[in-house]
Every structure is written in structure tokens, then in C-alpha cells.
Design brief:
heterodimer, A: about 250 residues, two-stranded antiparallel ribbon, 8 helices, B: alpha+beta, five-stranded parallel beta sheet, 18 helices, about 35% helix, about 15% strand, binds flavin-adenine dinucleotide, binds iron/sulfur cluster, binds FE2/S2 (inorganic) cluster
Chain lengths: ~250, ~650
């Protein structure tokens, strides 16, 4: 318990979307190894504020790996070195004493930097708005158990439905493709009977919107799968490509 | 009335009218629906409804109102509606479907809710909730929410804290996430259809009223720093709960009370602010910079046995403590319910044992001794196998291992109580309308049907019932009866509210002191946990009032905000929230002091039996307390009496 360590944080600082950016180094002494990396950033920010400087901007909220707010590169890796872990769940006990951590925002044309480590991911919502749902109005649903779904099938749909919309897949992809994010939603709804009526149309609409939003296309480097905190399988991208080709226009 | 504490307890002004339906409870909601005025779809198009919040309550209400034809605006401080705090709910959602065939029914869920709330909620509201519950599941399934299933393909259920039947629907440990995504997808469908406008990254900082009627809100755009007026024909607040008044809680770090508090200052009465729930199964707190407490779903209590070393100060590793030297204190004290006693009982008993020196793990930053108790899965693992336990609680156990660095399969989990849910909130009538006409309050933000204590898996049910079913009907009824003049951003009421907010921000940025927002907030949290947490007593509450007043003075005299010239100002956002938490803390203490009884999660040490059980006082306190804000004076306490026709008040007994 309560091991402490010294850290050097090299952080991308950029005051606003159009401001120039660059790295800035900060040293933290005697941080508790039981803290998360974000809590270390909180501690740094208290120091910066006390010194009259602008604190580091980064997105976060739940701090338990479920809301998808947090996310930046740690030493070049989206969400840092631990598998299946969002950066808010990255604890310093996994970091060596005296280590230097380089923190950078997601780098993708479709995710413009807002400030420091914070980026604009609203493109994801616009993709989902194109058809990432079952079109049912409130009040029109049949009794729930009239739709039977096998346990395995439901579990598989659930696995793909767990995508938290963090954007790590995009940030780690050299084409900045959102294919894993899109495939996850298509697979969630496409595996369920409720999702069948709109299945083909949904697959086309989401892929088309993805391209319109400035995300690249997939060239199978599979980095996305490696960084995905929800461990969504890239096999779903191949599945998506079999589902429906995006239509021109 | 018992002796009234300072400055309240009067029945002047207008009596509170909850507009409860008359006649038989079982048919009351259906009859109400038939009588509510309606609006033709064509006329709905010209009416704008503003929803603050995109959690389960806000997203479901906004989507449904837009489906019906209204023009809907949604304001949220998140960058995407999908990130609202509802996403973190783990355990499940209740519904009276009786799929398990164990005798559940609407009547039973209704009774359990009234009893669970310790007879401090309205019967009519609880009954309506139970009636609606089943249809919520139908709708969520139709949306594609991937609930857990049985091998035959039907929906699976489990039993959840305090219930003797299996009525909880779940999606592994991520039920809130899946329900929220269903609601948010429905919302995005309406965005695409052009019926909803989404305003993300906005902090609501004031309510705009015109002739006493709610007509809009003032927001600060977090990216541009601009102050904006959003006007509408009706305003719905679905801004969540206020557990972060305690600084460390299971809520998301940015969850806040600001929307509620500014509505309160504008005339919305605040009901039962001291009814806050402390959850027994959280990961104990660690270092000084810890930013939040993480919940371990109490579904773990189905399979885990809670125990402590019998001997205080016994610091042997758990595996070395023999059976005979373990105190399974919940099973010992409550043979019927055992480890499944309601949250408040479990939290209180755990605190007692820890105060007696039996607690395990590192000490807590505030109150000294070790605060943890063991939750032991060993027996369940031996019985069902590791694979079954992993399948049931996989992501929870991974999370535990990540945060604590301990392997939950090798040693018992350590858990501790943490602030979790707030039953109090803005007072609303049966139609979910606050004391400000045209202002509706939904979800955890209202004081709702959970009385003095909420049952596990009932918040998701209530948020969705408010949003999908109740508000769409009652907001329509309100709008049908109210021809309203158009109000645009140039209206004097908008300009005045905007000027107020600007003055407030200017004041904070001009202080130039040396106390950080988080530092002050941490102090407030420790204080509130100490005097207004699991257990309360008059002397502590009075001391709390003085200390909150001191903290408030320090906030205004010595706050430190960094001088930055960028429009993005995270510290300012936090300072505005803290200012409102300080106001609310004062009100919570007054409410706790005035309620001279123990009921549900509100435990007054002066009011307990010889065996330490809560003593409710139905003669003097069978009422909802609703507080009216008075500028420059102490708030005024009003009451709404409660009567029970179906479920006869009885002492809660889980032994
Ligand atoms: C860890 C955890 C687990 C839980 N598990 C369960 C469970 O298993 N079952 C159950 O029934 N309940 C559970 N609960 C309780 C339940 O999740 C909440 O009560 C419920 O989700 C609240 O929903 P809501 O829509 O009222 O508010 P929230 O989901 O909190 O949404 C609030 C919304 O309001 C917005 N907002 C707030 N203030 C402002 C402002 N000033 N300006 C602009 N926007 C604002 C936010 O951006 C957000 O969109 C759990 C709670 C926690 C903390
Ligand atoms: S697919 Fe994975 S990496 Fe991509 S947004 Fe979803 S959770 Fe994040
Ligand atoms: S802060 Fe919510 S996932 Fe990291």
C-alpha cells in the first residue's frame, strides 16, 4: 500500500482549436501509487492553479471506465499500456518510479483538438443519428417475452453493444477510420430480431455518414481492436463489410 | 407538531396541493390519463419543450415528446448525450412482470416501494410506478436493449437488495449503459428527423420565468464561454442527483445540483433534501487526491457473505482468520434477510462495527479508523464455480482488481459505504410539475416515489417511467391549458436572468484568493459525511450549519480561480457548482434537524430503540417536507401530509 513515486509528464498544451500547440514538461514528486493517472493530473492542476497558471484540459466524468469521456494517448498508445482499460482506470501502481509519460490528444481529422488533451468527438453522434437504432415509437412495443432470443445470441449482441464511444479505435488507426465503432453498433442491432427490418439500410447509412464526417476507411491493421477498452473484436468489421456496401451518393 | 427548529414549520402561504387522483388507487392513473387534455399533432409542432439533461429521464422524455410532434431542445453539460451519469448504473431495473413465477405482481411491487421508502412517499405515485414498470421493459426490448436471457430465450431476472422476489432485469453489470443507449438512440433518431436540437457542453446556470411561469434557461457554453438564453413553452429538468455534495460519492465527478438549486432560488420548493442514500458496497477510499468512490453492484450481496474479524484490530490476512473468529454480522443480526437487508441497514450496521474497531483495510482520510468490511465470494465460487461467478459479475470484479490491485478470486473484496443516491429533490405534484408552473422535474432530480429510502433497481424504473410515460402525458396537459405568449431571447426576463448570471461569474472571477475549488469542496464533503451521512444527531447538525456558513464565507472571500484568457474554464465550471452545493448543504442540514425521527436512510441517533433500530414518528412526521427559498432570510419549511389507505404503516423489520 501507499508506495509513492516521482513522475515526469510531458503534456501537449494547446489553448484552443486554432492556437498553436507544443509539449510542456512537469514533474510530480511523491504521488501515491494508488492514484489513477487522471488523479495525478488533478494533483498537477492544483499545483498549476496555485502558481497562477492554466490547468491542463482533459475530458472525464465517471472515472470508472463506462462513460467514454476520457481518452488520450499515453506514450503513443490510446488509453495507455493496459489492455481493456480506459485511461481513467490506469493506476500509477503500473508505472515505474521516475518514469516519463508523454500525454497527447487523439490525433484524427474528424476529432479536432479543443484544448490540450480534449477533442471534439461529436462526429460519433452524427454517425449514430443516421440510423443506429430500431425505429420504434414509445408506446408501440409488444409484450417483451413475445420476442425470444437465445442466450448466446443475446450475449453476443450485448458484447458489441458495450462500445462506450471513446474514440480510441479512431485515434489508433492510421486512416483514422471509425470502422470498429460503426461495426459495433451494426453488430449489436444486426444480431437481434428487433434490428432486422432496417438492417441493410442501417449498414449503408452509417458507413456513408462515417465517410461524410471525415473518418477514413479500414485497411485491416487491427490496431483498433488492440486498444479498444471494451475489447470489441475487429472480426465485426469484416462482418460489416459483408453486410452491405455503402451506396454512392 | 413537535418543537419547531429555528425559522420554519409553518403552514402559511398556500397549502401544497399534490393534485392526487381521487378514488381507487388501482385505476387512478388510467382515469387520470383519460381526463388529461390533449393537443392535436399539428398544434404540437408550434410548441417548444426544453429538456435539461440527457440521462435516462431526460433522453426518454425528449425522444417521446419529439415523436409526438413537439419541437424539443435538449441541453446537457456532456459532450454527448450518451455520457450522462445513468450510463454507470450497474445492477438492473425492476419491473412487476412475474416472469420468475414467484408471486410478484403490480400490487407487490407497489407495496414493496411504499414499505421500502419507509412510508414517506405517496401511495398514488408508487402505485403508478409499479403499473408502468412492465411496459418499460417491453419498450426497451423493442429498442434492442440486450437484456440477459434464459436458455429458452425468455428474459432473465434476479433478486436485488431488499426484495424477496426476482423482478430485476439486467444486462450483465451494465444495465444503465444499455438502457441509456436505447434512449439516446431514440433521441438521435429524432435529431435526424429534425425534431430535436441538441445543445451539448452547456451548463444551465439559471431558470427564466415570465409572470411566474417557467419559460427557459440561461446556459454557459463551455467551449466559447458565451452565455445563452434558451426559451420554450415548458421546461423539464432531468439533471440527476446531488450526492456530490459529499465530494466523494459514487456519482460521476461532474454530477451536480446547479440546475436544481437555481430553480429553487427562482421559486421551486425543495422536498426532503436530507433523504440521501449511502450505498454499502463501494470500494473503500484511498489517498487524499482520490476523486471518486466506485460502486460494486449490490447484486454481489446475492452471492457474497459480509463479515469482519470478531476481534477488533485483528490485522491477519482474511484467509488466516478461522471461521469461528469471523463475525457474519448481517446474517447474525437479520436471520431472514441476512446479507440482503436494505442499503441503509447494511450501511449503518457496517459503520457500527467499524466504529467498534472491527473495520479492515487502510484508514479513511476523514474519520480515522478502517472503514472496510469483507464481502466474501468464496462460498459461491466453491458452489457454482469460478466461471459462473465470472459470467455473473465479470466486469465488476475486473474493475475491483484494477482499482485496488487485489485479486477478488484470491481474497474477499473489501467494501465500504459511500454516498450514492439522493431521494430528495425538487417537490413535484402527481403531474411531475414543481411549484413553478410550467417547470417539470424528472428522474433523480425530483423527490420522487422512493420516500426516505430507495430500493435497488428502482431508480432506472422511475427515471424511465417519468420520461417515457408520465411527463409526455402531463406536459401535454399543461400546454393544452396554457395559451402562452412567445418569449424570445430579447424578452426583459431573459436579459435580467442573463445579467444575473454574468454578475455571478464576474464576482467569482474577481475574488482572487488562495483556496482551490477542490480543496473547499473536499472540506465540505468530509463535513457533510460526518454530520449528515449514515447517522445524524442534533448537535452535529447544528455544528454543520455553522461550519457550512464559514465555508461559504471562505468561498466568497478566498476562492482562487486561475487567471486564464481562454474561453474554456474548467475551474469556473466547478466553482459555480460548488457555490450551489454550499447552499444545498445548508438546506440539507436544516431538513435533517427538523425531522425529529428516524426513517429510511435518515437516521437520527436520538430516535432509536434499545436494539439500535430506527424509530419512525408517524404522528408528527408522516409528511413530505418542502422548503421554500427566501432571499436574505432562512428557508421556510412546509409540509404535505401523507395518508395511507392500502399499505398500513408498520415498523420496518428485516430481522
Ligand atoms: C454507480 C451507480 C450505479 C447505479 N446503479 C443503479 C441500478 O443498478 N439500478 C437503478 O435503478 N439505479 C441505479 N443507480 C441510480 C441511477 O443510475 C440514477 O438515479 C439515474 O440513472 C439518474 O438518471 P437521471 O436521468 O435522473 O440523471 P442522470 O443520468 O444523472 O443525467 C443527468 C443529466 O443532466 C445533465 N445536467 C446536469 N446538470 C446540468 C446542468 N446544470 N446543465 C446542463 N446539464 C446538466 C447531465 O449532463 C446529464 O445529461 C446507480 C447510480 C450510480 C451512481
Ligand atoms: S469500438 Fe472500442 S475503441 Fe472504438 S469507440 Fe467503441 S469502445 Fe472506444
Ligand atoms: S471518465 Fe468515464 S470512461 Fe473514463
Amino acid at each position: 500500500m501507499s508506495r509513492t513515486l516521482c513522475l515526469t509528464l510531458r503534456i501537449w498544451r494547446q489553448a484552443g482549436p486554432d492556437a498553436p500547440g507544443g509539449f510542456e514538461s512537469h514533474r510530480l514528486e511523491g504521488v501515491s501509487a494508488d492514484l489513477s493517472l487522471l488523479e495525478a493530473l488533478d494533483q498537477l492542476n492544483e499545483q498549476l492553479i496555485a502558481a497562477g497558471q492554466r490547468p491542463v484540459g482533459f475530458d472525464h466524468d465517471c472515472r470508472e471506465g463506462i462513460c467514454g469521456s476520457c481518452g488520450f494517448l499515453v506514450n503513443g498508445q490510446a488509453h495507455g499500456p493496459r489492455a481493456a482499460t480506459t485511461v481513467c482506470q490506469l493506476y500509477l501502481r503500473h508505472v515505474a518510479d521516475g518514469a516519463t509519460l508523454v500525454l497527447e490528444p487523439w490525433r484524427a481529422r474528424a476529432f479536432p483538438v479543443l484544448q490540450d488533451l480534449s477533442v471534439d468527438r461529436s462526429g460519433f453522434d452524427r454517425i449514430l443519428a443516421a440510423g443506429g437504432y430500431c425505429s420504434v415509437n414509445t408506446g408501440s412495443a409488444p409484450e417483451a417475452n413475445t420476442i425470444l432470443i437465445g442466450r448466446e445470441q443475446a450475449a453476443s449482441a450485448f458484447d458489441t453493444a458495450t462500445c462506450i464511444g471513446c474514440g480510441a479505435c479512431v485515434a489508433s488507426c492510421r486512416n483514422a477510420s471509425a470502422s470498429l465503432f460503426v461495426a459495433a453498433k451494426l453488430a449489436h442491432l444486426g444480431q437481434l430480431p428487433q434490428g432486422q427490418p432496417e438492417r441493410g439500410q442501417r449498414a449503408r447509412a452509417l458507413q456513408q455518414r462515417m465517410a461524410e464526417e471525415g473518418f477514413g476507411s479500414c485497411s485491416n491493421t487491427l490496431e483498433c481492436e488492440a486498444v479498444c477498452p471494451q475489447q470489441i473484436s475487429a472480426d465485426w468489421i469484416s462482418w460489416m463489410h459483408r453486410e452491405a456496401r455503402p451506396q454512392a451518393g | 407538531m413537535t418543537a419547531a427548529p429555528s425559522g420554519n414549520a409553518s403552514l402559511d402561504d398556500l397549502p401544497l396541493d399534490p393534485h392526487l387522483p381521487a378514488g381507487r388507487l388501482a385505476t387512478a392513473w388510467e382515469r387520470t390519463l383519460l381526463d388529461l387534455p390533449r393537443i392535436s399533432p399539428a398544434n404540437k409542432r408550434g410548441l417548444r419543450v426544453l429538456v435539461v439533461g440527457s440521462g435516462l429521464a431526460g433522453a426518454s422524455a425528449a425522444a417521446t415528446l419529439a415523436e409526438q410532434g413537439y419541437a424539443v431542445d435538449v441541453v446537457t453539460y456532456h459532450d454527448s448525450p450518451r455520457r450522462a451519469h445513468s450510463v454507470a448504473a450497474q445492477g438492473g431495473i425492476n419491473a412487476a412482470k412475474n416472469y420468475a413465477g414467484d408471486g410478484d405482481s403490480i400490487e407487490r411491487l407497489f407495496r414493496d416501494t411504499v414499505k421500502g421508502g419507509d412510508f414517506r412517499a405517496r401511495e398514488a405515485g408508487c402505485h403508478r410506478l409499479a403499473e408502468i414498470s412492465g411496459r418499460l421493459i417491453d419498450h426497451c426490448v423493442a429498442q434492442g436493449v440486450p437484456f440477459a436471457r434464459e436458455y429458452g430465450g425468455t428474459l432473465a431476472n434476479r433478486s436485488f437488495g431488499g426484495a424477496l422476489v426476482s423482478r430485476t432485469f439486467y444486462a450483465r453489470g451494465q444495465t444503465g449503459q444499455q438502457l441509456l443507449y436505447g434512449a439516446v438512440q431514440a433521441l438521435l433518431r429524432q435529431v435526424e428527423a429534425g425534431r430535436v436540437r441538441l445543445f451539448c457542453r452547456r451548463d444551465m446556470l439559471d431558470l427564466i420565468t415570465v409572470d411566474g411561469v417557467a419559460r427557459g434557461v440561461v446556459c454557459r457554453h463551455q467551449l466559447s464561454g458565451a452565455l445563452e438564453c434558451h426559451t420554450a413553452h415548458a421546461v423539464l429538468l432531468a439533471s440527476g442527483g446531488y450526492s456530490n455534495v459529499y465530494f466523494l460519492s459514487t456519482n460521476a465527478v461532474k454530477s451536480n445540483a446547479t440546475a436544481l438549486w437555481c430553480a429553487h432560488r427562482r421559486g421551486a420548493w425543495f422536498a426532503n433534501p436530507c433523504f440521501t442514500q449511502v450505498h454499502p458496497t463501494c470500494i473503500p477510499s484511498g489517498g487524499a487526491y482520490q476523486s471518486k468512490l466506485t460502486l460494486m453492484s449490490e447484486s454481489l450481496r446475492n452471492d457474497g457473505r459480509v463479515w469482519l474479524p470478531l476481534r477488533p484490530g485483528d490485522d491477519r490476512p482474511p484467509a488466516e482468520i478461522p471461521e469461528a473468529e469471523r463475525d457474519y454480522f448481517l446474517e447474525r443480526q437479520y436471520p431472514t434477510y441476512g446479507n440482503l437487508v436494505p442499503r441503509d441497514v447494511a450501511s449503518r450496521r457496517a459503520r457500527e462495527r467499524c466504529l467498534a474497531g472491527q473495520g479492515v483495510g487502510p484508514g479513511d482520510g476523514g474519520s480515522g479508523g478502517a472503514q472496510g468490511v469483507y464481502l466474501d465470494l468464496a462460498e459461491a465460487i466453491a458452489r457454482d464455480g469460478r466461471a459462473a461467478i465470472e459470467a455473473r459479475y465479470g466486469n465488476l470484479l475486473q474493475m475491483y482488481a484494477r482499482i485496488t490491485g487485489e485479486d477478488p478470486f484470491a481474497r474477499p473484496l473489501r467494501i465500504a459505504p459511500a454516498p450514492h443516491y439522493t431521494m430528495g429533490g425538487l417537490w413535484v405534484d402527481y403531474h411531475l410539475m414543481s411549484t413553478i408552473p410550467g417547470l417539470f422535474v424528472l428522474g433523480e432530480a425530483n423527490f420522487s416515489e422512493h420516500g426516505a429510502n430507495r430500493l435497488g433497481a428502482s431508480a432506472l424504473m422511475q427515471g424511465l417511467a417519468d420520461g417515457y410515460v408520465i411527463a409526455p402525458a402531463t406536459v401535454t396537459a399543461w400546454l393544452a391549458g396554457q395559451p402562452q405568449p412567445e418569449v424570445g431571447p430579447e424578452h426583459p426576463a431573459c436579459r435580467a436572468a442573463l445579467a444575473d448570471v454574468r454578475a455571478r461569474i464576474d464576482h467569482l472571477t474577481a475574488i482572487g484568493g488562495s483556496s482551490s475549488v477542490d480543496g473547499l469542496h473536499r472540506e465540505l464533503g468530509l463535513l457533510m459525511l460526518d454530520v449528515c451521512g449514515i447517522s445524524r444527531q442534533a448537535a452535529g447538525l447544528r455544528r454543520g450549519l455553522e461550519e457550512v456558513a464559514q465555508l461559504t464565507r471562505r468561498f466568497h472571500d478566498d476562492l482562487c480561480l486561475p487567471a486564464v484568457d481562454t474561453p474554456i474554464q474548467g475551474e469556473l465550471e466547478k466553482a459555480l457548482r460548488l457555490e450551489d452545493f454550499l447552499g444545498l448543504a445548508d438546506l440539507m442540514l436544516r431538513d435533517a434537524l427538523a425531522r425529529e425521527e428516524s426513517c429510511g436512510a435518515h437516521f437520527r441517533e436520538e430516535h432509536q430503540s434499545e436494539t439500535g433500530e430506527a424509530l419512525r414518528d408517524d404522528v408528527h412526521f408522516a409528511h413530505i417536507a418542502a422548503w421554500k427559498h427566501r432571499q436574505g432570510s432562512v428557508p421556510q419549511r412546509h409540509i404535505e401530509p401523507l395518508s395511507f389507505s392500502t399499505v398500513v404503516p408498520q415498523a420496518r423489520d428485516y430481522r
